[in-house]
Amino acid sequence: RRMWSVKYLRSPLSRIVVYFFLQWYVCDIKMIPESLQPLFVQSHLDSGTQVFLSHCKAKSSWLLTQLYHSFVTSIFSLFMSKTSINGLLGRGSMFIFSPEQFRSLLRISPDWRMQRVLDLGAGDGEVTKIMSPHFEEVYATEVSPTMKWQLKKKQYSVLAVDEWQNVSFQYDLVSCLNLLDRCNQPLTLLRDIRRVLRPSKGRLILAVVLPFQPYVENGGKWDRPSEFLDIKGLTWEEQVASFSSDVFREAGFEVESFTRLPYLCEGDLYNDYYVLDDVVFVLKPV
Q: pTM for the full model?
């Protein structure tokens, strides 16, 4: 045991690997219902995640750049949202899964291809970029004007937030990543997604920060959503089970696979990165 304890590992990278593995990826299988246990996909700190963390560390050390970002943020925050400022500056990119983790969760090969993917609330499109090689057509939605600009620079088809539900075609995959807890009508959103997915073959990849704490930005204030999801339990495992039994069934989905991953964000002058605790589901229409 002493060999694997963080205290006695000389290499800083080794200490990071062990610590992150224990804190970010472990699920207590015995604490979830038996029906969900075989659906859990064990993730780990892979090379793709380490590259992102190394990039965050390097970027955080750019002193002049970080000072410039802080100055611009303090001025522009008077009339722009933080998301739009990040889009303007090209900072604050999110990381949810690596290409290998994405394929493992969907149980697909590197050469797997389908026609259409839709990324809801795609931000600057960095996560979209992980999924896009597997699809001929890539669609995205975003509220922030500067983030839309970033998405168009990456040549994605940007749809209005009230447009994607009313197209004349269906999607092979819809991603809804860390959007459900910031949505005013989360159950309606899930039902709309189910309606635009291809029957039987369509899939939803859904990431949710746990513990689940929903609130919606409304004119600079944070309010509770009009549709409230009654998620039961205190632990990560209990809330995962509640989503499966209390939310997905009502919305017409069932869990095909799920995993535990860190929701990472580029840092600033004070922190290399920021992290939240995610569950990522792959859901199929019932």
A: 0.85
| Every domain of the chain and the residues it spans | 12-285
Radius of gyration, CA atoms only, the chain: 19
Q: Which residue blocks in the chain are alpha helix, DSSP H? A: 12-24, 47-60, 63-76, 82-89, 99-106, 126-131, 145-153, 186-196, 236-242, 249-251
Query: What are 147's two structure tokens?
Result: 């983030």
How many Cβ atoms sit within 10 Å of the Cβ of residue 138? 22
The per-residue pLDDT for range 257-279, each reduced to its tens digit, is: 999 999 998 777 677 888 999 99
Q: Topology of 12-285 in CATH?
A: Rossmann fold (3.40.50)
Phi, psi of 241 (to 5 degrees): -65, -40
For residue 237, what are the contacts with CB-CB under 8 A and spacing of at least 6?
27, 28, 31, 32
Report residue 7's pLDDT band, with 50, 70 and 90 as the boundaries.
very low
